Amino acid sequence: MVSVVWKGRSCVLLLLSLPISVLQSGANQSPLFEHQPFFVTWNIPDQVCRRYNISLDTSPFHGVTTPAKANQFLSLFYTDRLGLYPHVDLKRKKLYNGGIPQRGNLKASLTKAKEDINYYIPFNQGLAVIDWEEWRPLWDRNWGTKRIYQTLSVAHISQKNLCFTEEQAIEISKQQFQVAAKSFMSGTLALGRAMRPNYLWGFYLFPNCYNNGWEHPDYTGQCSEKVKRQNDELLWLWESSTALFPSVYLQVGLTLWTALMVRYNIQEALRVSALPRGNATAPVFVYMRPVFADQNKRFLSQVDLVRTIGESAAVGASGAVMWGASTSCEMLSSYLSSTLNPYITNVTLAAQLCSNFLCRGNGRCVRKKSNSNHYLHLNPENFRVMYVQNRYLVLGRPTLTDLKTFNKMFTCQCYKGLNCSPRTIFIKAEGHCKTNFGFRICGCSLSGSHSLWIFHMCVCVHY
Q: CA-to-CA distance for 81 and 408, rounded, in angstroms?
């Protein structure tokens, strides 16, 4: 829980006239948490910490969950928790449920998936993430150890018809594999949407930008045109998904290029989410970790958090999911209180402030220049994040300069169906506040003005 403390007793008069741009495109659905255009969800296994009575402060997070439990805000479905997912266990050299999608039983899988959904997901709202990573639905993306699915597919078709040439067997296997993969993924999503329509459904790691190669001096972070074309081929998946869950786990050597890697991953997610929806986008929730993927005892620095959480908020993601943990509960507890929690509090509150100011709470702020380094942060000269009595407090209020900065750097991406017509909004003179039986009342004397509170500031908006 985060609270805002009003600093000072007198009400504030704002005298400004600012043109505020509003995006007509990119409309998004309203946030899952009211007045929270950007939030961070906790999905970290913490059973060991509880067993040793080591407390982890998760108060700034919206939706505190753990991967192992049922009946949570975020339900994470691994391969054995949803349906009968066909895959190969290379370590055990064992095929499960046919091994490849063509040999799977979709009807039986959906029957079991129905039972799984009833068990894991309650009747309310939240996020449903399917984590099926063993194979990818596009044939050409099954490289490395995933080539086993190509090999088994070719063997499967060759056994049925010995007359096929190698080229014919590969081409037919590719078609059958992709059709079956699509059926399993889209069919499972359709079932989930039908049974739990208030949950946002999608697959972990989709979409992927595949923008590795940061060790090269000319690294830009951009997705290649080939990757974009392949992602376009997955239009059926973006049509079936009601949320997208890309991943931006960091490695130590990536640090200097983190912002570029994160930026273009999210931009690609926003791009493909709009393909089936015209000017609307499905919400994007970015998976990240508090530690480096290749060094799980090394936590992300403040700069790393800016380039991951901060970058996600600034480019238009709806939220982030914090997954995985350090091997040390003591270190994680200390990191939360010293670094991660204050930063999450800062970003989520800055996103809320900007939303209230630019969008009247009907949308989220996104960068005017997508490739800039402007972030949704509270001005440290005017705000202070404090931890008091088991909750985080933000002491301060925005100045006219702070609001002008938001207006200069950001624009408004309105929520679907909420006042998205392109126009100029002017904030005019003389908001005034008065006290009435202990309550501060915001009123405007300008004809045709709308009054609103922005962090305890009375502002008149004239249309």
A: 47
What CATH number was assigned to the domain covering residues 2-78+204-462?
A: 3.20.20.70
Order of all β-strands in the sheet with 457-462: 19-20, 425-427, 457-462, 449-454
The catalytic residue positions are 133
- 434: pLDDT confidence band, cut at 50, 70 and 90? very low
Domain ranges of the chain: 2-78+204-462
Per residue in 391-416, pLDDT (tens digit) is 888 888 888 889 899 999 999 988 88
How does strand 383-388 pair with strand 285-288?
unpaired
HSE at residue 336, side-chain half, CA atoms within 13 A, is: 21
| Beta bridge mates, 391 | 388
d(CA 331, CA 48): 13
pTM of the model: 0.88
Cα–Cα distance measured from residue 297 to residue 120, given in angstroms and rounded to the nearest whole number? 31
Give me 405's structure tokens.
Answer: 């900065």
Q: Is 32 exposed, middle or buried (0-12, 13-18, 19+ CB in 10 A)?
A: buried
Report H helices in 241-340: 258-274, 302-305, 311-315, 329-335
